[in-house]
Amino acid sequence: MPNPQPRAVFAMDPVHLPLLFPPPLMARLTHAADLDPTLVVRDFTDPAAAGALADAEVLITGWGCPRLDADVLAAAPRLRTVLHAAGSVRSLVGDAVWERGITVSSAVAGNALPVAEYTLAMILLTGKDAFAHRERFRAEHRFPSHAETAGTGNVGRRVGVIGASRVGRRLLELLRPFNFSVLLYDPYVGVSEAAELGAESVGLEELLRRSDIVTLHAPDIPETYRMLDASRLALIRDGGVLINTSRGALVDPDALVEELVSGRLCGVLDVTEPEPLPGESPLYRLPNVFLTPHIAGSLGNELERLGLIVVEELERVAEGVGLGHEVRYADLVRVA
């Protein structure tokens, strides 16, 4: 006899639902679970959601979902699985979830690919000094001289990757076809594993001193807070590039502004602290800074990739088999 469909409820900002789950994926969800596709809970205290929450065995969460704390769990006595259609669950899942033994899954692996792709694009463009050439071309309407292009190019350029996270590992894979020299700093990755990933394992300070381009892919945890402070930023060579698609908290913002205003370093910043920056920040206007509004992660049609991961996880739940993207409490000390 087949297992009965688990009862599932959406909990997120409804604006994300059609992008995460277009009709073919929604059809698979409703086939795998007892699910009302028109009910999307954003406020767990809403009386209209009380009945659905009381019966829910699976929560399908996403951006805009309130934190799952003890009060929420008290209203959801049958809940046994949380499937998060986004990245980190750190701000979503409270201690009560782990204490009750609820299984948690995240689509963070699907979100890693666009971030790695964005980073690869920025590495290639900054290696060609594309942003500076664009600024000069717009202002002077002339091609650069040989002297102005002498230091550009991507042959043998040294790329320093900080963090062998899912994004970091995907980036290392994407870098392999190119003629880069790749350095890796990650305290959890040894020399042999780094070599298998296509990189040389080095200490953080050595990576900063030797790299032409430094790219951040470490998690935002207490151990990484301000890991690039003034003294470490000073180790990056003159003309070096810092790419940050991780979190602004990993870099001392005042020290970073000082380095960028001086023109000594170039920055590609998809994340900042605070976020967004205040309107008077000089980073909006500096020619050596390429600033984007947190777009490296999944956007637009890329959200469907996250939805597919959740659909496949829900199908596993319905079949009574293990999850493919389970988040374990013990791993939270070193992942986002």
Structure notes:
With 336 residues, the chain is an alpha/beta fold. Helices cover 36% and strands 16% of the residues. The chain has helices spanning 17-20, 23-32, 47-55, 70-74, 95-99, 108-127, 130-140, 146-149, 166-175, 191-196, 204-210, 230-233, 253-262, 303-319, and strands spanning 7-11, 34-41, 58-61, 81-84, 103-106, 158-162, 181-185, 200-201, 213-216, 241-244, 266-269, 289-291, 326-327. The protein has a 7-stranded parallel beta sheet, sandwiched between helices. A 6-stranded mixed beta sheet has the order 2-1-3-4-5-13, with helices on both faces. Strand 7 (181-185), helix 10 and strand 8 (200-201) form a beta-alpha-beta unit. Helix 6 runs antiparallel to helix 14. The mean pLDDT is 95.
Determine the mean pLDDT.
95
> Would you report the number of β strands?
13
Radius of gyration: 22 Å
Q: Approximately how much helix is present in the residues? A: 25-40%
Oligomer: single chain
Characterize the overall form. elongated
Number of helices, counting only DSSP H or I runs of 4 residues or more: 14
Contiguous low-pLDDT stretches (5 residues minimum) are none
Describe the main β-sheet briefly.
Answer: 7 strands, parallel
Q: For the largest beta sheet, what order do the strands appear in spatially?
A: 8-7-6-9-10-11-12
Terminal CA distance: 40 Å
Order of helices and strands: EHHEHEHEHEHHHEHEHEHEHEHEEHE
Structural class: alpha/beta
Proportion of beta-strand residues: 15-25%
